[in-house]
Amino acid sequence: MARDGRSGVLTAMLGILAAVLLAGVGVAVTLIVMSGDDEPAAAPPVTETVVESVAPPPPPPVETEPAYVPPAPTGSAVVQGGPCFESEVRSFGTSADGQSLVCIYAGGDGYAWVRHAANSGEVHNIGDPCSSPEDQVAVDPSGRAIMCGGSVWTAGP
């Protein structure tokens, strides 16, 4: 029976050891489970697609044609005794019937187209000497009419 006594003690010890091991495993599992992160599990990565929207360019401005504005006259009608512009003074012109006329300042009446003596076509400077019996009408270096006023070339009467 001594053997039975030993074997009973041995069985009891093995039972206690098994109980301790089982308790240890239970504690270890509890610790592992409890020692995990207190944060919730991370969500799987999300792929975001960014679409950049570019507004189309604005339409070009609508061009409207300006109202017709007649151009400022650049020259007068060349008619003997007819009016001419200040900008035409000492300019030569030819009338519709072929007469060579020159625009002059006519005093209080403004500017007018008048007949002139024969144009020599020579070029002289105002103030240069001339001879009135021979020289009558010529042009200055700018192409404007000048006349012999006695003994020197002048811009007009």
From TrEMBL:
Keyword Transmembrane: yes
TM spans (from-to): 12-34
Residue ranges with Pro residues bias: 55-73
Keyword Transmembrane carried by entry: yes
Disordered as annotated region, ranges: 51-73
Keyword line: Membrane, Transmembrane, Transmembrane helix
Domain of life of the native organism: Bacteria
Name the UniProt record assigns to this protein: Uncharacterized protein
